[in-house]
Amino acid sequence: MGDQKTNQHDDKSIDLDGNPPFVRIHSHAEIGSLKEIAVLELEDEKLGGTGSITRKKHSFKETSLSSDKYDMKCKNNVWNSIKIVLFSTKLNILIIFGPAAIIVHKTTGFHGMVFLLCLLGIIPLAERLGYATEQLAFFTGPTVGGLLNATFGNVTELIVSIFALRKGMIRVVQQSLLGSILSNMLLVLGCAFFCGGLVIMKREQVFNKATAGVNAGLLLMSVMGLLFPAVLRSTHTELHFGKSELALSRFSSCVMLFAYAAYLYFQLKSQKKLYDMVSNNEEESGIATSDDDEAPEISMWEAIIWLSILTAWIAVLSEYLVDAIEGASTALKIPVAFISVILLPIVGNAAEHGSAVMFAMKDRLDISLGVAIGSSTQIAMFGIPFCVIIAWIMGRPMDLNFQLFETATLFLTVIVVAFMLQEGTSNYFKGLMLILCYLIVAASFFVHVDLDSVGELLSHSPVN
Description:
Layout: H1 2-14, H2 21-46, H3 50-87, H4 97-107, H5 111-137, H6 142-153, H7 155-166, H8 170-199, E1 205-206, H9 209-234, H10 244-270, H11 272-284, H12 291-294, H13 300-323, H14 325-332, H15 336-348, H16 350-361, H17 365-394, H18 403-421, E2 425-426, H19 428-446, H20 451-460
Antiparallel strand pairs: 1-2
Helix pairs in contact: 4-5, 5-6, 5-13, 5-14, 5-15, 5-16, 6-17, 7-8, 7-13, 7-17, 8-15, 8-16, 8-17, 8-18, 8-19, 9-10, 9-17, 9-18, 10-11, 10-17, 16-17, 18-19
């Protein structure tokens, strides 16, 4: 009986909480483990947090290792960017001619050699500027990318023009900008049509003639802006002699800048679908592009940094180039008009020339037209009026009177190119005709003596 009572008591004591016996045993073990943890924590506190210090040291080591890896990665990225931009093309060998030009200028002062070395040194810089712009275009889309390509493709001409304006060489500015338009419309577009037609001889290449027509209209508008001041001067019908021509030029420049701004809105916002049709048509036609063409080789910030570096170096060489024009004309026995209209634009348009031909050979003629005609439009509707306004701010009397010879050349060039574009097709024979037209223009300026430019150079030459 006593044993039974004892068992009952034990059962009651076990079943007080209504739990199985093993649960109570588990709770005792849990309490014991908690006590052990509390004792360990007390010991940690007595030891002054040695374990926490060890953990902090461990985390510090991990942080330092991760920072080292980050630094290593940054160094690798910088080296890869330098290798891609500077060592990926053999044309960059010509970069050494830039420092050589500065050395020759400082030591000998032989202007003919300085001029030639500056020309050779600017060629790879202009080409790499176009490459960096194309890389940046991957992050902006095709329409904005084409605009960026045309803008930075004309940076060389604009920088040369600003340095020439500072020295009062207005005719050099006018002729170099005119030569840039002629070079893009005849030489660059002609080579694109010719090379594309030779690669694809089975059929005619097709492009969007609606967008080409808009650019042709803007070019005709620019011809109108240049024509009236020249006619006003040649007919001697100015209301105020020497003032009306300049006032008309400044007013027309403001109108042309407004028209170009409206064109940008038309291209990027209002009629964006019209310009996006180019890339959509290429995708529908199944044009195969390699992975290298679809993926950027450098990051967006690397492209922006390279654009800044290349633009600054072009600006340095442009100053030496402008200083050497007069001496080069005398030493090499080449007319200043030929240097300004033919030689300077060929160097400045090196980037457009290469990219336009490359895209034409891949049967992507709309991009070639965007580079060549788009660049001409930008110089005519933005570059020239912009220089007139900058000269106005500088106190220089630059106007839109490009003289009858230059204006007539531009007018005939725009008419010829507009006829070539009206059908919306191209072949190698059209390209050959444009190249031959450019040769005629080059020969004309080689035998043309511009008295105004000669007088400018003589007035700004140092008196011995």
